[in-house]
Amino acid sequence: MVRPRPGHAAQGLVAFDGRVVACALGRTGITALKREGDWATPVGRFSPLAVLFRADRVGPPSGDLPLRAIRADDGWADDAGSAQYNCHVRLPFAPSHESLIRDDHLYDVVVITDHNRAPRIRGFGSAVFLHCAREGLAPTAGCVALPHDVWRRLGHRLLIDRPVLVATSGRPVRRTKTARPFFRGRRSAI
What we know:
6% of the residues lie in helices and 32% in strands. It is mainly beta. It is globular. The two termini are 27 Å apart. A hairpin with a 2-residue loop joins strand 2 (8-16) and strand 3. The protein has one domain.
């Protein structure tokens, strides 16, 4: 469960397995009406689909989700006008996209979620992941980001097939429609 951190709109508190840790959220906080480019973290109940990691920086994380090392040509389409909107793409890719290979350490570990995946609605937000946080829990563009030390100590408890709940309070959030399996039966290909 992810909730806003009191007094810090762009930070949250993640509760799992009896622990509570601080996390970074979108710089405009949590919203019930996610839109592409609004810098907000969407409210909802999201299933983790797969884990991608930087093999040149971290070892393979443990957990029960499908796992693959990030490759140089991995990207994610964020152009709402593209037929590949909010999908994994191979680079080079002409429409607007995000490279999953980054100079910073944000995508050393990335959990792909089913946010806006089934059905995909253009303009309702793309690339809403769980990933590593910037120093000082600086805001994200809409993802939930946890400090590197949390990934190192507790990543195995985070990388399991259970929903991620993002709420504005302690009340339950609605269940979103579950997307098809991310790797489509093949653990090594997206």
